[in-house]
Amino acid sequence: xxxxxxxxxxxxxxxxxxxxxxxxxxxxxxxxxxxxxxxxxxxxxxxxxxxxxxxxxxxxxxxxxxxxxxxxxxxxxxxxxxxxxxxxxxxxxxxxxxxxxxxxxxxxxxxxxxxxxxxxxxxxxxxxxxxxxxxxxxxxxxxxxxxxxxxxxxxxxxxxxxxxxxxxxxxxxxxxxxxxxxxxxxxxxxxxxxxxx
Length: 197
What we know:
Elements lengths: L2 H15 L1 H30 L15 E3 L2 E4 L3 H10 L9 E9 L5 E8 L3 H5 L5 E2 L4 H4 L6 E4 L1 H8 L9 E4 L2 E8 L10 E4 L2
């Protein structure tokens, strides 16, 4: 038998004599491995996992930089100016999240709503799986009040009924017409999408 086998047997005998310390060491290693795995899983899901959109590696976020705010959201007029003068990006879209209240379907319900520009499908290279996205005319000031449902909201509140297209939704006291339903691939925490205007 070689010296390595002898050393291994000696180590095992020593570990059997101090069982409490051995158990604590094994537990510490197990906890360390478990915590490291959990942290990496979160890190991967938040920072490393690619976005589920075509050409996601070519997408960037552009902010308005001001003295008091390094990542300020731009106003709609500034977005229109950026898009008009754009000669760098293939397409630009504006998105602003807000909370809204939907009424008229039982109890009032608070939902996450994204106010977006009509160019979102071109940027994300996706389109509603049923119906359509809003047009440039609907996104202009004074345009018709239309709304696109997120996939999860459509499944949960309307049981996946495609007949929801054309129905009216009361959102913050205004009546919106449902014109589309986004696909599962575009799943976000957002439940409803409306024109930014």
